[in-house]
Amino acid sequence: MKTYLLITISIFFLLSCSINTATLENSDNRAKTKLFINGKIYTVNEKQPWADAVLVDEKGVIKFVGSNDEAKKQATKDAEIIDLKGKMMMPGIHDVHAHPLEAMSPFAGTCVLDSEETDAENFIEILKECKDEQPASNWVLGSGHSVSTLLESERLPIDILDEAIPDKPAVIMEETSHSIWVNSKALALAKIDKYTPNPQGGVIVKDKKTGKPTGVLFDGAGDLIMDLAWLPTKEIKELNYQGLLEALKELNKNGITSVVEGRTYWKREFQDAWLRAEKENKLTVRAVLGLWAYPQEDDAKQIAKLKSLYRKDENSLVQISQVKVYSDGILINSTAAMLESYKTTLGEIPSKNGLNYFTEERLAKYIAELEPAGFDFHIHALGDRATTESLNAIEKSQKGKGRHRLTHLEVVNEKDFPRFKKLNVTADAQVAGDFTQPSHWKENEYLIGNRAINLVPIKSLHNAGARITLSSDWDVSTLNPFVGMQNALTRKPQNLPNLETVIKAYTINAAYVMRQEQKTGSIEIGKQADLIVLNQNIFEIPTDKISKTNVLMTFLVGERISSFIE
User: Fold this and answer.
1) Spatial distance between the Cα atoms of 345 and 340, rounded to a whole number of angstroms
2) With 518 labelled, which of 187, 419, 441, 445 sits at a CA distance of 20 to 30 A?
3) Exposure of 39 by Cβ count < 10 A (0-12 exposed, 13-18 middle, 19+ buried)?
4) Are 430 and 411 in contact (CB under 8 A)?
């Protein structure tokens, strides 16, 4: 009902404002010069922050930014005039940490569990109903539960899942994606038993009495099974591709014209879906893929493989030029790497200071090998020890050519604040999710005490001179960037100072991270016209209304790729 209402409202608005909504399939429309007039155009160009009009040539390049009268003088006679009727335009949003393919692939699972459910036994009937709906595989996949619900169950989680799904291998990802719940069939296929040691970056939770795996695997241990379930077949790859196409629509509807896939599993051949979308002229964003660094792989072989997948083509929308590395796990599972010990830990986490997917020394080795090959590193660092170690690794190994960044940054040692600027490391944060807001900080006090205050310290990092980017981590959090913008301004005491700073985090700063700040990220002459039109001027409304902003139209290289009228 909500979708139909929004479409109806937007149709009325677009008609009343006389905004041209000719479809991309109209080749005449694509070839024309476009003249946007009567707008409140925020450029993100400090030398010319605001304009009334933008002129875009037939190749999608911005030729003029300024007044209506001057723009009209420079426009060709056959230019398509788009009257913005006072609506706000800004550069397209860059989301530099999202998981579009995983979020929308039909293969990702048909069993959807409730994170609020506190009794794992109540999942049995749901799992029985959904187990035969999984497409393209004999595996059963799903997600959604809280790992605490499994750890607190009277029976072993594996026994509960075996009762629900006894005849097929099953793997259910918890709500954070940092642990999985598996049955006996899945463990057998992965050759995991009571004698199997914990893999690098992961924990196989075992029963204290019998040593039997309980069916809960944290972090890297779960990846071993997920890779088996996702082994690429023609059918699975087709589902992934169709899911990516649906994800592109969601990105564009939210005003996102550039995205970094935050975890390109090359063993699952995720990269092929992106390349196919471009080949078939269905790609509607600029994309940089972050190749996943598997913690259990042989270093020499993996580094060689990553180098072989590198792709940097200025004429392509797809670049394969980042490496995604996890330094640690997550705070709420007590697997984030911490300088001081946890007050308590979950499951059978062997260390009181969290875990490492990649140690400082190993990360330094990868940076030393791969930065000269053109790769930038996108490093998951959630705990303060992970942040320190990641910065140490960059400092040891970088040659000054990398545009590396740390993402999440929930707990950061104040001594590390100035190191971001010193090392030219971008601080990438996600603040759209409720769990990152100050009202939820106390929920982590039982794990880390008063260190739970000031989580995701974007104000402190900004004040220390760090380049800030804001991203979604979709579908862990909402894709809507305007929720993130609002939260970034309101999450006191760790808020950014003003809307200009927040918008930079979603545009020009993020374009720098993607190595495309000369092409996009601001509205300037010579740049390509990645533009969005909003239903309200976010500079003229109360801050607590920013999250209600809708994107009316999205343009990539001057072509309309999304609007409320299909």
Assistant:
1) 13
2) 419
3) buried
4) no
Are 365 and 297 spatial neighbours (Cβ–Cβ below 8 Å)? no
SS (H, E, C) 186-201: HHHHHCCCCCCCCCCC
Residue 183, token pair as written in the block? 């049955």
Residue 558 has pLDDT above 80, yes or no: yes
**pLDDT tens digits, one per residue of 57-78:** 999 999 999 999 999 999 999 9
Query: Which residue is associated with the tokens 């760090």?
Result: 466
Say whether pLDDT at 313 is over 60: yes
C-alpha dihedral sign at 299, 304, 309, 312: positive
pLDDT value of residue 8: 33
Taking the CA atoms of 484, 490, 492 and 498 in sequence, report the sign of the dihedral they define: positive
Unique residue bearing structure tokens 């004999």: 138
**Do 335 and 383 touch, CB atoms closer than 8 A?**
no
Mention the CATH class of domain 293-496: alpha beta
Q: Model confidence at 164, in pLDDT bands (50, 70, 90)?
A: very high
Beta partners for residue 218, in sequence order: 179, 203
Q: Are 8 and 1 in contact (CB under 8 A)?
A: no
Q: What is the mean pLDDT of residues 393-422?
A: 97
Domain 2-91+525-563 has CATH 2.60.40.3550: no
CA gap 344, 334 in Å, rounded: 8
Give me the residue label for tokens 């007050």: 343
Residue 119 has pLDDT above 90, yes or no: yes
Ranges of CATH 3.20.20.140 domains, the chain: 293-496
Q: How far apart are the first and last CA of the chain?
A: 17
Q: What is the pLDDT of residue 56?
A: 98
Specify the length of the chain in residues. Answer: 566
Share of the chain above pLDDT 70, in %: 94
Q: Collapsing DSSP states into helix, strand and coil, what is residue 146? A: coil
pLDDT at residue 31, as a whole number: 54
364, pLDDT greater than 50:
yes
Q: 503 near 250, Cβ under 8 Å?
A: no
Beta-carbon contacts of residue 220 (< 8 Å; ≥ 6 apart): 199, 200, 201, 202, 295, 296, 326, 355, 357
Closest CA to 124 of 179, 74, 161: 161
H helices then E strands: how many in the chain? 20, 24
> What does the pLDDT read at residue 28?
42
Residues of the chain with CATH 3.10.310.70: 117-229
pLDDT value, residue 32: 86
From the list 288, 276, 444, 299, the residue with the least C-alpha distance to 359 is 299
Which of the listed CATH numbers 3.10.310.70, 1.25.40.10, 3.40.30.10, 3.30.420.110 matches domain 117-229? Answer: 3.10.310.70
Select from 293, 258, 172, 175 the least CA-distant residue to 222. Answer: 172
Residues 14-54: pLDDT tens digits? Answer: 333 333 333 333 334 455 899 999 999 999 999 999 999 99
Read off φ and ψ for residue 556, nearest 5 degrees: -120, 120
Distance from C-alpha of 53 to C-alpha of 520, rounded to nearest angstrom: 17
